Amino acid sequence: MEEEREKVIIFPKWKDNLEEQAKKAMQENQFDEAYQYFSQLTENGVSSHEVMTGKLICMMELNMQKEAEDLCEELIANKDQYFAYYVHIYSTLLFQSSKYKEVMYLIEDALEQEDIPDHINEQLRHMYQLSTELQQQEDKQSYIEIEKQLEEAITEKNDRKQWYMIKRLIQLETKNDKKLFREMLQDPEIHPVVKTAILEYYEKLNPSTSLHIEKFDLLDMIDFKELDSVLPTSFFTGVTKYLEDLQQQDPTKYQMIQFILERFAYVYTPFLPQKENYELLAESLQYYVNRSFHFVEDNDDRKTSLMKEHYLKMLDVSETLYGTILDV
Predict the structure, then answer these.
(1) Gene3D superfamilies given for it (predicted)?
(2) What pLDDT score was predicted for residue 4?
(3) Cα(139)–Cα(192) distance, rounded to whole angstroms?
(4) % of residues, the chain, pLDDT over 90
(5) Best CA proximity match to 81, nearest among 117, 106, 130, 128
(6) pLDDT tens-digit map of 20-44
């Protein structure tokens, strides 16, 4: 780095000449040539606002999208006096690439963190509004296409595709309370994991009316105004409370149990064990992991089969069903 600085100090005319050649090349739309000049400057420690801006413009003109994005992020991270200008360049670059969500995140973050000059502030807000409108249009079109693919997946009885389509709908800003989704929740032929994804969708939508759901021949009505969460934190903390000693003694086994418990909850929600059975479920989880790795004696097998047979069967089912969708 010291050598780079010395080159600039020793050859100031060389620096001025390169800058002049770069500007001339840009004026003549010779962006490839201009980029080479700017690169020589930056490689030798010249990082003035004019040079960095010129280099970015050349990158954009040469369709060097990834390189331009990386450089913008680097310049923005410096948070110097030109922060607002680099945010404007970066947001323009993202907008031109139809990355509307990224534009929105960038501008939101910038306006919260820094004081932006009025004229740039106005431009950023205008770009934010345009990005919002265009993203909504894209989401609506995507929603229609994904819903069509979901209907095809139902006809094909393709559980994995159904789950994937619901997950894609969750990612969109556009969300509608569709009759199809409510029918899927009550259809015994729809996979339990797919139904949980639908509940996650409705959790984002927050419908005003209750939902009816069927799983494992059990029926329930869900009111999202009263629901803590589709996957309630109280359930996980309630069960793992009985595993605190194991967490200290064998962290690896504890982590395995956590993964199994998360899959169990994803398959069975909202039909999860009651609070008074959390301790028994925790014991069953420990036994299930021990049995899976052949750490259980024959006499323990006979003893525990009477106490925990129900939950052990449920754990077998949840692991199998979750694996059919997500290959775990």
Answers:
(1) Hypothetical protein mg237 homolog, domain 3, Tetratricopeptide repeat domain
(2) 45
(3) 27
(4) 73
(5) 117
(6) 999 999 889 899 999 999 999 998 8
Q: Rounded to an integer, what distance in angstroms lies between the CA atom of residue 113 and that of residue 299? A: 64
What distances in angstroms separate CA 31 from CA 70, 211, 320, one per listed residue?
Answer: 19, 59, 58
Cα–Cα distance measured from residue 277 to residue 280, given in angstroms and rounded to the nearest whole number = 5
CATH code assigned at 29? 1.25.40.10
45/127 same-domain check: yes
pLDDT of residue 290: 87
- Return d(Cα 85, Cα 236) in angstroms, integer: 47
Sign of CA dihedral 99, 103, 104, 105: positive
Which residues span the domain enclosing 251? Answer: 233-326
Question: Could you tell me if 215 and 164 lie in one domain?
Answer: yes
Residues 72-96 pLDDT 10s: 999 999 999 999 999 999 999 999 8
Return d(Cα 274, Cα 261) in angstroms, integer: 15
pLDDT at 174: 84
Asked if residue 204 and residue 92 are part of one domain, the reply reads no
Which pLDDT value is given to residue 5?
Answer: 44
**How many domains does one find in the chain?**
3
Tokens of 148: 């069509």
Phi, psi (deg, nearest 5) at residue 95 = -60, -45
Same domain, 171 and 276: no
Among 134, 165, 200, give the residue marking a domain's end: 134
pLDDT of residue 300: 52
Assess whether 119 and 91 both reside in one domain: yes
What own/partner pairs with CB < 8 Å and gap ≥ 24 does 113-117 have? Answer: 114/79, 114/83, 114/84, 116/84, 116/87, 117/84
What is the model's pLDDT at position 8? 43
- Identify whether residues 130 and 111 lie together within a single domain: yes
CA distances to 39, 42, 57, 62, 145 from 28, in Å: 18, 21, 14, 14, 45
User: How far is it, in rounded angstroms, from Cα 161 to Cα 61?
Assistant: 40
